Amino acid sequence: MQTIHDRAALTAHLGRFRAAGETIALVPTMGALHGGHMALVAEAKKRATRVVVSIFVNPKQFGPNEDFDAYPRRAEADAAKLGAAGVDILWMPGVDEMYPTGFATNIRVDGLPDRLCGAARPGHFDGVATVVAKLFNQVRPDLAIFGEKDWQQLAIIRRMAADLDMDIEVVGFPTQREADGLALSSRNAYLTAEERAAATALPRALGHAARAIEGGEDIAKTLSSIAPALVNAGFASVDYVALVDAETLVPIEKLTRPGRLLAAARMGKARLIDNLPVRPAV
Ligand code: PAF
Fold it and tell me: For residue range 260-270, what is the model confidence (pLDDT) as tens digits?
């Protein structure tokens, strides 16, 4: 595996792959790699002949009071994992490479970022869209793979790639979970042992609610029971719980189309997100 920090070297390497007729998959990450990321890498290897993983903790997607400084950075351990997994290129630009002096462009997808995580994190998804557009232009992959754990992010990236004719297949890959159901996340590292044990209430509450709604229970009533259950289990607060159209993210009151049940809740120093499909009866 080649670890590359500057764009000229990246372009030269990728040019050799393309000249040889290879296909390129990109897995964008912010590092602190866990089994969820490694599942994306394994999927990338199935779908393309060359795999590029980017690690860049993107300052533009963190708010002023968020965890940019505290975000786990484990470059050496990450590189060892990616090398062992057969990744071809680890692309690790510095902040000056990504946002040189004078950088002035912001990519904003309208509508989709306004609710759910976007409501509590103003500007977050502009930061994500801007950096992902740059990564797409830098690597020019045939496809890029993102985890479904951040369902809203995936919907926004799909919209941006389609709207801007990027000709990159955006692939969503199912959330990977611990044995007790907790979604793998770099932010789980913020949890104490006690918080970690209590955090399993999030997937449990979403699972119960998803099955209840699929079984015909009243949607509003079911949704309103989730936040109290989470607080009861030890979450400090709940940012949102919502049942939305899986594609447009518009809240739904009747289950006539595939829905997605999403929640974000705070436990100790961590803000945890999760989501599950809710399928209409056939
Ligand atoms: O999901 C993430 O890790 C980040 O939001 C991404 C897509 C790598 C952009 O910085």
Answer: 999 999 999 99
